[in-house]
Specification:
By secondary structure, the chain is an alpha/beta fold. Among the domains are: 309 residues, Trimethylamine methyltransferase-like (TIM Barrel), CATH 3.20.20.480; 31 residues, no CATH class. Strands 9-10-11-13-15 form a 5-stranded parallel β-sheet. Strands 2-3-1-12 form a 4-stranded mixed β-sheet. Helix 2 packs across helix 9. The chain is globular and about 80 Å long. The N and C termini lie far apart (61 Å).
Amino acid sequence: MQGTNSEATRQTHSAEPLRIAVLNDEHIERIHAESLRVLEEVGIVVHYPPARQLLQTHGARVDETYQQVHIPRQLVEVALQSAPRRVTVYGGHPAERDCHLYLDGSQYARTTTGLNWIIDYRAARRRPVTARDTVNWTRLIHKLPNIHIAGSLIDQEEASRSAEVRCLARMLHHTDKPFMFSAFSGEGMRWLWRMSQVVQGSGRLPRLMVLSSVNSPLTYGWGQCEAAMVSAELGIPVLFNSSAVAGVTAPVTLAGAVVQINAEMLAALTIIQLHRPGAPAVYAAHPMAFDMRAGMASISVAEVGLMSAACVQMGRHYGLPTASNGICTDTCTPDAMATLEKWASGYLPAMAGANLNGGAGSLACVGTVSLEQLVIDNDLYGHIFRQARGLIVDEETLAFETIARIGPGRDYLMDEHTLRHFREEFYFSSLANRLSAPAWEEAGSQDVLVRAHQAVEETLAQPETHFLSEEQSREIDNLLKAAEEALATLEMHI
């Protein structure tokens, strides 16, 4: 009954989302104008021949010697007009797993994707991902309420060419949440699509999204571009991305880096939309900065949060669904610094309104995953999303009648107004320590990493839940065998 009341309250009262702006309207217009100027006057190298031919057919100037394309601004404007304002990726049959991305819509979190190294907490060391790790990763994602999309985790035990297909074949058994994969190749995307068709009902595709990255400065690689174009053909949403490093592969000034990032991403969007007008696409900038003292790229400094928020604002200016790299850290182990850096990098873009926020489970500049860090990040996103929802301010929540009824000197603890609202007003952390210092010591003085590890062990100790029928499992196995043979043959020819 309490759940029913809570749902009824949620339907009749809605908060005004809290939005943070790091750019004003004039800044946005100037960045847009300079981005168009970069594409038209400087151009971008596009290694995939069909993409160059496509752009040339539509009026772009192409230098085949250098594979460099100068994209007229009118082509970009056409692409922006044809890109859909709403993108949906479906879960299994329960509709509550579906993720609907659109301006000022719900906000979602995803894990990192495409990684193949993991921190083994029990041995306190970094090692290659195994097939069992992929299963455990998926099972844990399924249990975490604030992680909505399961990113791929690639094992290093078998052939790399079919790794993403092998990964999806395993993950499909252990969750009904949607998936996100990094782009490998166009042929790989076709096999992922075939597998998702096996498990999805009519009208509930796509089940997965793909991340396609432009290489900075101003270069769109063959495999990334091919995968994006094939995904557009199939109807798989493409998160078009740039991970430019301010000071190395982009200007050191934050505004200049955002200009180049925006130009690179608009080039990718233009190719996708010219290839298949109306293809689902998400604006997903992942800026980085260079630590001049350490000589290393950083994904977690405060400036990354600022650039990420600025990019989210650019995507929202275009009316597109937006995504950010989210909560990321340069730290190589799940420690206090990891949480601090994740907040610094991921808070601002989420508060700027990014529909999809990534990084969960990642460490080491998105080079390693940790199951314990994934549990901590689930909690971190719980806090961030609660703040992003903002406050509900209406007659019911202003609570004058309640204040008058309680009056001076009494408490609100058991009042009907408290019982009616406390579940949706507050986020309740599953990891937080709310004990007094003496009680905490008596309970074993556990820190958050110990509690996160206990949560991992408890989840993995439970019996496995399987989401495929025997017939679906056989179909997936047959598709995996066929994919491995086909991709191995393709690799030999390459």
